[in-house]
Q: What sequence folds into this?
């Protein structure tokens, strides 16, 4: 998937939108739509988080700590299918990348196109063998869709990973500082720290402001 052969010139961009933004309701739909609208030289790949759907699993694990952390992790990844389906319904102009083959084709597809990517299309126990081991996060609560979106960005050879936040973000904040403050998951910071300084993708925070 990372091979550029026959790929139309342009930039692949991954945008991670936290599931909490969906739970923000209709005031955030237009800002999200604007955010995921590609320019003529871009392909946009959107990965949605799980929001309160996944948070409920954290609550269950807190109540029952004897539950296996890795098993809980993969349960949460499966729950992301629901927010992916909802995102596809709310933004019908976007194309779906729900399987490995669809994602592979979309990475070389037409420019000025937005794709909603199903996390389990590339990140599941059955597909891990397709991903270089050094790109993989650990499979527990330290990994959220922050780190998973970085894996997606590596797979599609994205120039940039944009992480959407609903709160103001200091533009000078480093990835390590963002992880220390809880703004992103610690696994994203660890994965970035293993790469060369100028290695793709670059990471940028963007702010989603709800319409009044």
A:
């Amino acid at each position: 998937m990372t091979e550029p052969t026959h790929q139309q010139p342009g930039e692949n961009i991954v945008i991670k939108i936290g599931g909490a933004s969906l739970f923000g309701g209709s005031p955030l739909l237009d800002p999200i739509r604007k955010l995921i609208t590609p320019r003529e030289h871009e392909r946009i790949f959107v990965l949605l988080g799980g929001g309160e759907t996944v948070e409920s699993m954290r609550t269950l694990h807190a109540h029952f700590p004897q539950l296996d952390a890795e098993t809980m992790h993969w349960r949460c990844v499966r729950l992301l299918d629901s927010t992916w389906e909802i995102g596809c319904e709310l933004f019908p102009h976007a194309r779906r990348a729900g399987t490995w083959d669809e994602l592979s084709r979309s990475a070389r597809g037409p420019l000025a196109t937005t794709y909603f990517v199903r996390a389990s299309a590339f990140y599941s126990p059955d597909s891990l063998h397709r991903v270089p081991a050094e790109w993989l996060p650990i499979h527990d609560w330290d990994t959220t869709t922050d780190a998973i979106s970085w894996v997606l960005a590596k797979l599609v050879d994205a120039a940039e990973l944009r992480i959407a936040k609903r709160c103001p973000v200091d533009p000078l904040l480093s990835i390590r500082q963002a992880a220390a403050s809880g703004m992103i998951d610690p696994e994203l910071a660890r994965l970035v720290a293993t790469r060369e300084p100028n290695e793709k993708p670059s990471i940028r925070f963007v702010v989603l402001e709800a319409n009044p």
In short: The domain at 11-207 is CATH 3.40.1160.10 (Carbamate kinase). The two ends are 41 Å apart (CA to CA). DSSP finds eight helices and six strands in the chain. The CA atoms of residues 27 and 211 lie 5 Å apart.
